[in-house]
Amino acid sequence: MTKPIIQARNLGVEFVRNRRRNMRLREMVIRPFDRQRRAEQETFWPLRNLTFDIQPGESVGIIGKNGTGKSTLLKLIAGVLKPDEGEIIVRGKVAPLIQLSAGFSGDLSGRENVHLVAALHGLSRQQIKSMFDEIVDFAGDQVKRAIDSPLRHYSSGMKVRLGFSLVSRLPHPILLVDEALAVGDREFKKKCYKVIDNLLAEGRTLVLVSHSQPQLTRFCKRGLYLNGGRLVVDGTIQEALDAYNGPDEPHHEVDKDDN
Amino acid sequence: MQDGSGGGGVTSNVIGVWRARNVLKYLVRRDLALKYQQSVMGYLWSLIEPIGIGLIYYFVFIVVIGRGERLAGTIPTSQYILYLMSGIFAFMWTNGVISEATGALTGQKSLITTMSVPREVFPIGRVFARSAEFLAGLPILFAIAIWVGADFSWYLLVLPVAFLLQATFLIGVALLLSSLNVMLRDIERFMRMLHRLIFYSTPILYPLQAVEEHLPTWAQMIYKANPLVGVVELYHAAWFPQVYPSPGLLTTCVLGSFITLVAGWLVFYRLEPAVLKEL
User: Fold this and answer.
1) Residue A24 with chain B: CB contacts under 8 Å
2) Quick check: is B2 in a domain?
3) pTM for this entry
4) Are A120 and B183 an interchain contact pair (Cβ–Cβ within 8 Å)?
5) What range does the domain containing B133 cover?
6) Strands, E, within A56-173: which ranges?
7) How many domains are there within chain B?
8) Per-residue buried b or exposed e for A177-191, using 16+ beta carbons within 10 Å of the residue's own CB
């Protein structure tokens, strides 16, 4: 068996509730005398005791109610958050289809943004150059016409399209998707689905966070059901969905063929 | 976090930053592009502030107060403007880094929370972006040197040394301030005071000799513990070899710069997990 591409061992993150920042200065100064009060600070674990392996080429859906740590888990996989407990090993680069327009700066043109963000994702100059036209073409005519004007003149749809177009073209083996597919019009959504299908066919690993059952069943074979920051079910996507939907509605029929 | 893994972690972060130097280049280019719109006017614009400050101090201290004679023993009065400007350009770099480093993480939140690049590149990028401004000032400095008839000697070779020392020190400061600022947002308020302090506590307006004559030994030690004192003196020494820092001052400066770098990096490393949660 090959080594898992994502490996979580007893993973946990701790957050402090209601922390006031300017308290920290005092805290840092008095810390040695103040251990007790520190311990009393109210903390919570959005995620704890998570252990799972994801093999290369797997497509995994993460299911759970809002606030159960799904996005936190994606952040841990993406490496933009560090665990307080346990460890997570990610063997390969990650293409995060998360908050697609977030990395862009409004004062730069679309072209400059593509270069900057692609460089931040670890592409070389040549790589960026060779795929630049492709990225812009995929984002659509509207974006293509505006590629040299500042990004703050773009509509949010245009930004998201450009972002998706860029990140989905990264050659990285792991794909993280966080509800990103819910944006864009129907036509663009179809294009996105096709891209993800192709990437999966190439053998990339997909981790998808979604509330949409059709999306989950379409792309994922395996499902992780999180509840209260714990991993409750690790099985097929159907098993995870059943656990999420609860015993009262075992045959969930809603929006099954919305696609 | 175990202490054993701490050192290894920092080392791997340093290697990570080296690998991400391409990213660094793009960040610096972006900062410069945003600021100067890649134009000649943008370049000239960056020089207005240091030259303006230089002229003001020249007017006040030399023309009005007539303090030139205090320098008489050390620096020819006619070349005081060169002494002043070489210190001011170095100060402007420090100044720029301190004011921009505090926002280096908080201001680029969206990039940091979506991309897995070594977070150090954001504050370090600010140091390099502002160094471009410093380098842009060098032609002005050389023009002034020609104008006042300064000596172009081998001592000019200390310029790159001073530059590297200052960069080392500033990277440490930037790492420290950027990470602390996320945890203590009120740190920005202290910065204005710090600017003044740095300006007056380095030998920019006056010769170091004046400090040595007027301060008690213990106060001198505190004064000279600031690595910028040595850095500024090196910049001066490029034109005025007679103020070349003593071996003691030079050692303090080199050690201080590197200690600041290591300390800044360690603090950044320790705060990083918490910083990522706060952003």
Assistant:
1) 183-184
2) no
3) 0.85
4) no
5) 10-278
6) 59-63, 85-90, 94-97
7) 1
8) bbbbbebbeeebeeb
